Amino acid sequence: MLRLRLRYPGSFLGLLVLGFALALTPILFVLGDTLFALRALSIQSRHSVLFGVGLTRELRGLGEDLTSLERIARQQLILGDADGNAYPRLREQLSRDLQRLGARNLGGSSQALLQRIGQGDSAIAELLASGRPGDEISGSVLAHFEDMNTALQILREDLDRRIESEIGALTAGTSALRDRAVAWLGILLPLAVVLAWIVFWLVRRSMRQLERAIRRLGDGRLDTAVQVRGPRDLEALGEQLDWLRIRLSEVDAQKTRFLHHVSHELKTPLTAVYEGSQLLSEGVAGRLNAQQQEIAGILRDNVIRLRQLIENLLDYSSIRFQPLPLVRESVAISEVFERVEHDQRLALAARKLALHKRDEGIKLLADAEKLRVVLDNLVSNAVKYAPENSAIELVARRDEDWAVIEVADFGPGIPEAARLEVFEPFVQATPPKGASIKGTGLGLSIVKELVVAHGGDVSLHTNHPVGTRVRMRLPIFGKAAAA
């Protein structure tokens, strides 16, 4: 199946610029179209205004000329005297007005009215020039003036309607422009939003890939390659993160191999020291006095403690260096509790601690030995931090399909800020007062690895009224739950 790969700009800044350009393009298109239409509408409006003003002025001049002609004609008919130059001059002015109006291409009906006024003027001029008495021609002259005034009035009404039509066309054009702009915005604004969302999604996609990669590196999950798709500079940053992942994997493997080898090398001579201290305590080399017995006992106890620390290192290195095999079987939690109590009986007795166990007869599918190691580490930590003459609680209960196991002490507790860090390797809370040997900081790390391998989780909580409560959840599977 053919897969299309998105082609990103060469840089993150280029992607942002492209996003802004894509989002603004529809809006700029609407703005440009509107401005172009407004310009055309402005030209049309200017033309209509000039046409209306010029037409009104010329009609007013035509009316004034016609009135002056009628006054002079009446004066000549009634008094028989007139300025010989006034009438021809007014006729020339009237003729120019008619020509200017005729040049405007006002339409067939308006042109006919202009011709009607011009013909009336010619007829009146002929009557006045005929030399006939005024009484004989006055009726005809006045009739022609009345007809010319009627034609002028009709022409004014016709041209008023035309101007109103122009105004109506401008109003309709403005409304159409508004409607078109609204329609374009209704279509293109969602498109701009979609384009902006696509660019945001592309940016967010690359940033989330970087965020997940950094989080995996921070959590120590180094088995997944870092792949970032996006602009070239972000892809280059992803390649640098992948190089860092590989380097961290190599360093982690070297550290694990170092722990593995050093732990084995330390365990061999330590066994010889332990055997020697045991032989001294048993008097094989001669009877020891009380002070010598005490020294031999201290030596033996510290050798046991060192051996426990080395075993923790071995357990951690084996967990980190190799895949963790689990031998799952039906395990009764009460039996694991009994084994842990038996293994810790001397440590509990030394600090005069009571171990209170409580379970609900829960069984689950788990690796019994690794579950024992988990609880042994947790109880060992509780013994170390619990005050003398106090108690440690070991509780198991069922929560739907989960077994919840808790180990609680009444010691000083662990600060809130350190509760996540103590599960990391080589991180240890403040050791209790009087502790002769500081631990490796691997106990809770081993607990977390083994619990996660079983598909569970582990967390630290405040015990009440004081102390620490370690809570782990393990899944209960199938027949183990019903057994």
Can you offer a commentary on this structure?
By secondary structure, the chain is of the alpha+beta class. The chain folds into 3 domains: 12-200, Four Helix Bundle (Hemerythrin (Met), subunit A) (Up-down Bundle), CATH 1.20.120.1730; 246-322; 325-482, 2-Layer Sandwich (Heat Shock Protein 90). Helices cover 67% and strands 9% of the residues. It is built from 11 helices and 7 strands. The protein has helices at residues 12-79, 86-102, 108-129, 134-219, 232-281, 290-321, 333-343, 345-350, 368-385, 443-453, 478-482; strands at 329-332, 354-358, 363-366, 391-399, 402-408, 457-462, 468-475. The protein has a 5-stranded mixed sheet, covered by helices on one side. Strands 1-3 form a two-stranded antiparallel ribbon. It is rod-shaped and about 180 Å long. The two termini are 50 Å apart.
Defining key terms:
483 residues, alpha+beta, Four Helix Bundle (Hemerythrin (Met), subunit A), Heat Shock Protein 90, 5-stranded mixed beta sheet, two-stranded antiparallel sheet, 7 strands, 9% strand, rod-shaped, disordered N terminus
